Amino acid sequence: MFGIKPIFWVLIDSGVAFVYLFIISKLLGKKQIAQLEFIDYTVGISLGSIAAEMATNTETPFYYFLIAMSIFFALAFAVAVIGRKNTFFKRLLKGKPATLIYDGKIDYNQLKKNKIDVNDLLSMLREKGYFDIAAVAYAVFEPSGDLSVLPIGAQKPPVMEDLDKSKIKKASLSDILIADGAVSFSGLSDIGKDENWLFDRLKIKSAQDLDNIILAVYDSETDDFNVHYKSE
Description:
Blueprint: H1 4-28, H2 31-34, H3 38-56, H4 62-85, H5 87-94, E1 98-102, E2 105-106, H6 108-113, H7 118-127, E3 136-141, E4 147-151, E5 175-179, E6 182-183, H8 185-191, H9 195-201, H10 207-211, E7 213-219, E8 224-229
Antiparallel strand pairs: 1-2, 1-3, 3-4, 5-6, 5-7, 7-8
């Protein structure tokens, strides 16, 4: 059983930790929440861990934890200030944007460098509202982990034809037949085709040819493929 004194200090330390974390969060700014980058994530986790330890540890003086949190705050603040002055230092600590899709084609080297597979990329595109990769001109993976997407023709001014609802095609999901060098048999089943048909259409003659394909999407309306290769 806990004594009255330890429980009392847990309450006091918890309140102090909460107030101190609130002050630090206000000083670091909304960016800590809105655009969580690697260094911000590390600092946030560390501060939270120290605060939790402070709330439950009744043996170590509470000001030790406040000093530790102050050090993390000072380092995070210093990184932010230096990063604004020195671009190289900022990129070293926070990373730089990576273009995963360039001019409508997936950059396989950037996918590997950022430890992202094609399914992760497709998932992030869907979260941005792009279910058809053919509609994407550029996709930039930000240091915050977010994906910025520029669709094809995004800078074209709208014309009356764009506003004609009778000419708007019915929305449909793309048929992904190959992803990361593996055949999607469920995708083939959906369109009523088999592996031989796929290999013949894409002129695949060996496993090496198949491994070189990052993504192959079939458009049943145009009977055409949108294929992305690891090496062009």
